[in-house]
Write a structure and sequence with these properties.
Layout: H1 9-40, H2 43-68, H3 79-84
Helix pairs in contact: 1-2
Length: 94
């Protein structure tokens, strides 16, 4: 296993950007599930699942805040452009 010391600063910043992007997606998915639960479930089922979803969202937010502190605001990385750009053989704009 490699250590963080072996990672270049740009690679570290890219990793942080990807982690933040992943956490944002996970939070959005959980928030969408919360909306579904509110609309579909009975009150007993709803309360239990909403509490669990809220706990998960709070944990994701804590992780996001923790990793956000490592983000260099001057490091410009757009994961969508990176993974959909010409370097991947795909059109730049879908």
């Amino acid at each position: 296993m490699k250590s963080k010391a072996m990672m270049s600063e740009p690679d570290f910043q890219k990793l942080i950007a990807l982690v933040l992007n992943d956490l944002t997606i996970r939070r959005t998915m959980l928030e969408n599930r919360e909306q579904e639960v509110n609309q579909q479930m009975s009150s007993l089922e709803k309360d239990a699942e909403l509490e669990q979803l809220d706990d998960q969202i709070q944990q994701i937010q804590r992780d996001y805040d923790h990793y956000q502190a490592y983000r260099d605001p001057n490091f410009d990385f757009d994961s969508q452009q990176y993974y959909q750009g010409p370097s991947m053989g795909l059109p730049k704009f879908p």
